[in-house]
Amino acid sequence: MPLFISSHGHSRWTRSLNFLVLVSAVTSLSGCNILEKKVFNPEMTLQVEPSGTAGQFTLKGRTNLPQPEVGKRKLPIVITVQAIRQLLPKPDAKTSQNSKPVTAIIARYRLESVDGNWEVKLNLLQPSDKGVPLEVWQLNPNQLPADLVPSQTVTFLVATESIDRTLAFSPDVTKTNAAGQKPVLQSAADGSLFLQAEEVRTIAPPRLPKVTAVTPSTAVKVTAQTMSGKSPTKQNNAPIQAQEFLR
Fold it and tell me: Is the pLDDT of residue 74 over 80?
């Protein structure tokens, strides 16, 4: 008996075939999206080594963060390196607003990386008006409360700028691990995300030179000096502005 398909049945069969083709196409596209949105495990490393010169350290590391793109143009990864020292209240200091810890930024450098690798030399010391190498907070000690003392450690920090929020991260990527290490992925106060790594080194601050007593018969004229201008994006021999090194 010959097989016969009516025009109505043929139309229904064609619609079913089109539906199957559509479902197959959607599934394929979904699979592509799943591959594109695979979980990104961020990496940010930091190594700190003395360079052989007093107060100078070599910092290097790498990150697997992809380069940001504008249109079809890839941009370099912007990285900021800092060295900070905590100024802590004396144990016997009276409780007051001036006895709160102060973070002193003693060195800062901003650099760019194309392949994720970076290296820089950081100088923690700056010459005083008498040529004595000191940390920046020691150049104007009168600006600090008398009940603060410097910690014996320096924290080296490296951080990226805000990163692409479309990257998919693992849910536990922002948790502190079992060793107590802080997560690489950090969140800023405004909700933006960035990568950060740190290393703490025991580095005693330089000793302040002894102040020579002035006899009553000697007149000393003191001229107040102010520093102006914008902060350099890269470290140089110019001191960090007084309003910038404390926070």
Answer: yes
Could you tell me which of 221, 219, 223, 243 has the C-alpha nearest to residue 231?
A: 243
Contact 95, 147 (CB under 8 A): no
Q: Which residues contact 144 (CB under 8 A, 6 or more apart)?
A: 87, 102, 137, 246
Residues in Cβ contact with 226 at an 8 Å cutoff, skipping those fewer than 6 apart? none
CB contact at 8 A, 84 and 157: yes
Q: Where are the alpha helices (DSSP H) in 49-142?
A: none
* Domain 47-65+74-202: which CATH number of 2.60.40, 1.10.10, 3.30.70, 3.30.420: 2.60.40
The structure's pTM equals 0.69
- Residues 180-187 have a mean pLDDT of 80
Q: Domain ranges in the chain?
A: 47-65+74-202
Residue 44: burial class (beta carbons within 10 Å; 0-12, 13-18, 19+)? buried
Q: What is the DSSP letter of 31?
A: H
Cα maximum dimension of the chain: 132
> Of 211, 94, 219, which is closest to residue 148 (Cα–Cα)?
94
